[in-house]
Amino acid sequence: MSWTITPESPDSPAATALWRAYYTEVSDRWYLLHEGRRTDPAELEREIDARTGAELAPPKGTLLVARYEGEAAGTAGVRLLDADTAELTRVFLLPALRGRGGAALLVSEAEHAARELGATRMILDTRSDLTEARALYARLGYTETARHNDDVYAEHWFTKPLAR
What we know:
Elements: E1 3-7, H1 13-35, H2 41-50, E2 61-68, E3 71-80, E4 85-93, H3 102-116, E5 121-126, H4 131-139, E6 143-145, E7 156-161
Parallel strand pairs: 4-5
Antiparallel strand pairs: 1-2, 2-3, 3-4, 5-7, 6-7
């Protein structure tokens, strides 16, 4: 039972499959909560295709892929917003592998990647219905802060200083 976490191109087969799983879950959760239905398949395909993850590629970003016993299991993305600030995004684990410590490892590795990019703090946003994510970030030392973007779906914003 072991985790490995490595940087990977956002367009790799594993990263692409995990992006699809991530986006499907968060989109369906939103639509089920607000409209009582799952995401329209055509809309889902448009949104998945429109968000390539290019901002998570070097030199100003990185996408980490977690593998559990060799199988692609999750992701965390980091993108440098300015000389001091990195954004944590696309934190996701396949549902069957949650509760095994992978999310905390992913976030820790993302923080390391952000420091390597020169960041001294990490920011992120999430939604109210993603209660597991909010609990994870609080447990890992992130504090809720004022809005830092205009994402229409964001409802909670967090920050954490990154020790050198």
